[in-house]
Amino acid sequence: MIIGFVNEKGGVAKTTLAIHAATWLAKHGHRVVLIDLDTQAGVSHFFGLKPADDVAELLRSALFLRADRRPPITSFLVPCPGYSNLVIIRGHNESGEVEADLRQPGRPRAGAVLAEALGELTTKGAIIVCDSGPYAGKLQEAILEAADHVFIPAIPEGASEVGILKVGQHLQSLGRTVTGLIPTLYTTTSKKHEETILDWQKIDGLGALVYYDPPRLVGLPKRILWGELYRQGKAVWDVTPAAVKATRADLETAQGEMTAILQRVTLDVMLRRKSNNER
Question: Is the pTM of this model over 0.90?
Answer without folding.
Answer: yes
